[in-house]
Amino acid sequence: MDAFYASVELLRYPQLKGLPVVIGGGRRREDDLLARLRTERPEQEWSAATLDRIPVEFFPRLQGYTGRGVITTATYAARQFGVGSAMGLMKAAKLCPQAILLPVDFEQYRHYSRTFKAIITDIAPLMEDRGVDEVYIDFTAVPGGQREGGRVLARLIQKSIFQATGLTCSVGIAPNKLIAKMASEFNKPNGIAVVMEDDLQSKIWPLPCRKINGIGPKADAKLQQHGIHSIAQLAACDPLWLARHFGPRTGAWLHAAAHGRDERPLVIDSEPVSMSRETTFERDLHAVRDRAELGAIFTRLCEQVAADLQRKGYVGKTIGIKLRFDDFQIVTRDLTIEQPTADARLIRQHAGQCLKRAPLQKRLRLLGVRVGNLQSSSQPPEQAREASLF
DNA sequence: TCTGGGGTCCTCGGGCCC
DNA sequence: TCTGGGGCCCGAGGACCC
User: Fold this and answer.
1) pTM for the full model?
2) pLDDT in tens, A236-277
3) Nucleotide whose C1' lies closest to the alpha carbon of residue A73
4) Nearest 10 degrees: Cα torsion A141, A145, A150, A155
5) Crossing angle, helix A217-225 and helix A239-246, to 10 degrees?
6) Which of A83, A134, A206, A284 has the fewest CB atoms within 10 Å of its CB?
7) Spelled out in words, what is the top-level CATH class assigned to the domain A4-104?
8) Choosing from A107, A128, A134, A197, which is the catalytic residue?
C-alpha cells in the first residue's frame, strides 16, 4: 500500500500566520468574535468571508486569563514559548501572555472537517477518517497518483482544500500509515514530505522515540530510563529485551515500529464502539452537600448521550460512569444490561447503579456518562442472525 | 499552578465453564 | 473429588490519540 497522511491546519486567519496563537478555553463560538466586531467596529461589514480583515490587535490576548480551560492546539510560534496542547491556559498565560487566544468552535471545525474530507474522497476514494483534521489515504489506485512519487496528487489535494476552505494542509507520503504520519510532520504547515523505505535510517532513525505515533509520555519516560532516546537506539534493541520490559505485544510493536514496519490496513468504514458525555464543573462538587446540583448534571449528561445515540442510530448494552476527583484520580464503573438501549431514563437508572458502587468521599471535579457495546438501532445483529437462520 | 472532551485499544484480574 | 489450564466475558484502570 502507498499511504498518504494528510492533516489540515485549522487556523484560518492569514493575518495571524507566524504569530503565537492558542485555541482553547470554554466552548465559545467563533461567531462571538463576529458579534463583537459588529458592535465595536460597525463601520465595516463583518462575515465569515471578511475574517482576514480583522485587525490583529482586535483578537483577545492570553494575558490575565483566569479559569479552568486548556489549550486545544497552538501555532508553532506559540510552541516556541513552551506552550502546547493540553496545557492549562493560566499556565500558558504566564509563559506567553502576548499569545492570541481563539475560542474552540467545534461546530465550525466539524463543518470544515466535512468539507476537507469530501474534497479528498472526490479525488481519492479510499480514505480512513482519523478525527477532525486528519485522514489516511491509499492512493495506489488513484490515476496519476504515482507521478513524482505522489507529490502531484498531494499538490492537487492541497490546492483543492485551500480553494474551498482557505485551510492549509500538510501531507506525508510513505509505504505505510506509521511512516506517512511521521513524514507529514517534516514540513508543517502546508508541506509535502515523501519518505521511502530507503530513507528510514536517514530521516526516521534520528528522531526521538516520542515521534512514533503510539509512544506517549509514559512509554517514552521508560525508554529514556534505559538510555533509549532515538528511534535508531530503539531499533537496535533486542526484541526479547523489549518484550521482557514492555510485554510481548507492546515489545514486538516497538521493535517493528522502530524498523518502519506497519501492516495496518486502511479502515474505510468503522463503527463507533462507545459514546459518552462528560463535564468538568465550574467548582468541585460534593456528592452529599451538592446532591441536587450533581443530580441535575447527571440527568442532563444521560439525556445528552441518549440524544447522541438516537441521532446517530445506535443502542448500547454497557452503561458506565466516570468520576474525576479533586486530586485528579479517575474512577470508572460500568455494567452490562440484557437489552441494548438509547433511552435516557434507562441510561440514568443504570448509571445511577454504577454511581452507588463508586467511592464518593472526595469532592468531584468531573462527571461523565458512557454507553458502550454499541450496535446499530435499525438492525440489531441478533435479529439479523435470526433472520438468516429461518 | 494547572491539567477539556470524546474517543480507542490494551492489560490485568476475577469469575465461570469445560 | 481435586487441581490445573485454557477460553471467554466482564469490570476497572491506564495509555494514548486528536
Assistant:
1) 0.85
2) 999 888 888 888 888 888 999 999 998 888 888 788 889 999
3) C18
4) -130
5) 120
6) A206
7) alpha beta
8) A134
pLDDT in tens, A69-104: 788 888 878 888 888 877 888 888 888 899 988 887
Q: Tell me the CA–C1' distance in angstroms for A242 and C6.
A: 26
Q: CA at A215, C1' at C15: how many angstroms apart? A: 9
Q: What per-residue confidence (pLDDT) applies to A30? A: 63
Q: Which CATH number fits domain A274-389: 3.40.50.970, 3.30.1490.100, 3.60.15.10, 3.40.605.10?
A: 3.30.1490.100
Collect contacts of A197-206 with beta carbons under 8 A, ≥24 apart: A197/A260, A200/A259, A200/A260, A201/A232, A204/A179, A204/A231, A204/A260, A205/A230, A205/A231, A205/A232, A205/A235, A206/A230, A206/A231, A206/A232
User: How far, in Å, CA of A124 to CA of A117, rounded?
Assistant: 10
Beta-carbon neighbour count of residue A234 at 10 Å?
A: 22
Cβ of A262 < 7 Å from strand C? no
Q: How far in angstroms lies nucleotide B1's C1' from the CA of residue A87?
A: 11
User: What are the boundaries of each domain within chain A?
Assistant: 4-104, 108-199, 205-258, 274-389
**Average of pLDDT values for A162-180?**
89
In CATH terms, A205-258 corresponds, of 1.10.150.20, 1.10.1330.10, 1.10.10.10, 2.60.40.420, to 1.10.150.20
- The per-residue pLDDT for A323 is 92
Residues within 7 Å (Cβ) of strand B? A 67-70, 72, 85-86, 88, 90-91, 131, 247-250, 272-280, 308, 328, 365-366, 368, 372
Closest nt by CA–C1' to A130: C18
A134 is an active site residue: yes
